[in-house]
Amino acid sequence: MGIVKNLFAGAWLLPAAYGAFSTSVAKGLASHADASSTTSGSYSQFTIPSSADFGAKLIPNVVDPEAVDAQSVCPGYKASNVKESARGLTATLTLAGEPCNVYGTDVDSLDFSIEYLANDRLNVQIVPTYLDSSNSSWFVLDEHVVPRPTSNHHASKKNSDLEITWSNHPSFHFKVTRKATRDAIFDTTGSVLVFENQFVEFVTSLPKDYNLYGIGEHIQQLRLLNNLTLTLYASDIGDPINDNLYGSQPFYLDTRYYEVNHKGHHTLIANDKADQSKNYVSFSHGVFSRNAHGQEIVLNPEGLNIDLTFYSGPSQVDVTKNYQLSTIGLPALQQYFTLGYHQCRWGYNNWTELAEVVANFEKFEIPLETIWNDIDYMHGYRDFDNDQHRYPYSEGEEFLEKLHSSGRHYVPIIDAAIYIPNPENASDAYDTYSRGHKDDVFLKNPDGSEYIGAVWPGYTVFPDWHNPKAGDFWANEIVTWHKKVAIDGIWIDMNEVSSFCVGSCGSGNLSMNPAHPPFSLPGEPGNVLYDYPEGFEITNKTEAASASAAASSQAAAAATGGAPPSSSTSYLRTTPTAGVRNVNYPPYVINNDQDVHDLSAHAVSPNATHSDGVQEYDVHNLFGHQILNATYQGLLKVDKKKRPFIIGRSTFAGSGKWAGHWGGDNASRWAFMFFSIPQALSFSLFGIPMFGVDTCGFNGNSDEELCNRWMQLSAFFPFYRNHNTLSATPQEPYVWESVTAATKSAMKIRYAILPYFYTLFHEAHTTGSTVMRALAWEFPTDPSLAAVDTQFLVGPSIMVVPVLAPQATSVKGVFPSLKHGEVWYDWYTQTAVDAKPGVNTTIPAPLGHIPVFVRGGSVLPMQEPALTTKEARGTPWSLLVALGGNGAALGQLHLDDGESNALDESLDVSFKVKGSSLRASAKGHWEESNPLATVTVLGVSEKPHSVRFNGRHVPASGVHYNATSQVLSVGDLHKLTKEGAFSENWTLNW
User: Residue 387 in 3-state DSSP?
Assistant: First the structure.
């Protein structure tokens, strides 16, 4: 996959006060030239100067013409003391020449091991053999935080799908080969291994026309582009394209297509050479780099502890299931209500406004499941503390009681940082901080003082998840607050972990608290939002012209004020010192997306120190992962019987065990609606199926056309939420008449297929399967689908082809596998699609219509749409049967109470169509009292002479056949299923 460059950690070094602000410097911030005060209520609030968030000016190595190429100067290693067994190999690697010490101190001796974990899984590790005099320890990733892949005791090299070979010529390298194709899937031949105390580099070759997916979190196309550099470093930044984002997911899927000749030999092909008249097979494999350090992957077809696990597949389905089942864990089973619609915005000012929003959804008869709060509800942006003027507990209790009685839910935001009170203001007491400080659960500076950064409330501290008391502290705060506010889930934000200043900037500055962030909030002077989506100037000419003029004036005023001073007039270049780690400014500079690329910019600094001596440098990418775990455990203490509902921003491999994820601070632009699809599909690979984005966009103003299309698209995402920023124009779906109609149209489908969605989530939770799927994964023998990310599947049976551009009235879509007899039905007309194999078909899609198709061979269990999932769950059942080309169809349904952790009572129903007979077979103890109302069968070529249900004639009044559309509808079945749709096994014959 090209070159992997890793900011590998060496020793735990604790230099006194290294990188921390001294008291004198910290106090100096208050008189800095760009410091200011804002008036809030009756007091003047100190504003943290913008310069506080400026780091050193760095140049990333990938774009630095003076950067040394480690491959050209480092000696590599030689293997010796090789010991082989049926289950693998161990060897010692020693430097093959003089140390290069290019970005750290070379390690003289390494342990190399291969372990065949299972027939479809193997592990490669390279770790330091011993500790030299300059290093007291090497960081080892905690297996309780990130588990190691499991091992099958019956595994062996002989029976493995994969094999590894190695050589010392010209220096040590290894190659992983798939036995079935004799194709190398990982090959370091021709490169040297570089292993230093702050830098690891290894290179593997790639096919010329590769299909790689994953390596998150980034916003980009589904199939990774050639010659792309991907940085993995958790960053609080508003959705840049291709740059590092909120989380780190060091996993990728590699799919290769082969033409098979008459002798069964496989020939690797380039995708652009695919011929629809020929037959192909594909083989997929996955690779997980079990490493939490900052990493950089350079994708180039030319060719830490290293801890790689290979998953042989051979399909995407096999790889994804193997990765989850054996390594990172299975995704959480979501509560049924979470699949309903969620409404949020930054700017709901009080309980009354929330009640008005809920009332408007009812007025316009738009389904609403959950109302959310951003940071508006907080007292001074403090976690677990409501503003008693705008969100008093007494009024909230009344609001939530009414909300819950309507079958709806409430979820608020909680940030990762904890406000630290002003010691000179007795009225500024904050019990959450006091309890945490007493238990000593916050991150420290190297000198042992509390690390004090800055986030929304002002100067803040940060929970130390390495402290054994931190989890109990966090859980206690959740439990205590829940007694005042009956929340139904938690939204975790800012958990990269973010800080609005470099270093411990609050040390000596606490008398300034509460402080305003070092930037203006949306809507404040100089930050008025004038941004609108592309095409707005066509549909709203006058308003667009006015906004453009105002934006130009605002930009000119900002330019007149002058650019903020940089903290450095030239680039800082760090030269490695033998045996010493510079964690704040590593010699190798990754392409971190903050303005000056400093790892400390807009983040807790790498030298912040945990209770066990580990520095943030070694575990930065795990903070978000661990706070999600702590939040999950906290919600279990609120109610151990109920599944926690959590949506988090920063994630790591395995975070899906506890939480879902949303795509972060996107923009109200058409590009971000498009990118939401590959984002969602990538997180399917990462084992986080509960994914959605801020529908209609977060930053900037949305408009009617974009919101119309986006509300319909997101209706087919697992997590469906509309959310926008402070001071932006409202974008609730009832704001525009056409958006209301479009939303209701798409929600009618979503709420009808909620049982199908829920069944997919149960399968993901129990088997590691995916919910949203790329066409290439479901149809692995068609190379032309490898890069398709403008349409997608929900499970195996629903295909969505959305409009992703302004002013469009049609969209092009491909209908896979038609040449193999696949049949696709239009959801709305229920007729088979007339299309040609491998051809993009033009599909009418006027504004307000999203093309949706049902795959032949499917049985979809459905219920009636309603305004809440609770109401929908109480309606009669129907089945939509879409016959395949061979007249057969299959389907599944899982039922339980939709919220319990322990599924003592559940029901699994399988549906099978063979000939002209549909059979439903149920297993389990869940009693489903709702009757079966109708069965609709698509693709019935002839009118049936009679219809029988369990041998009993269905009255002619309940049977309708349309010869034109070839649709058979069987109704009035509720009379035959009064005890419940699945209280007994039954057969429908026609």
Answer: coil
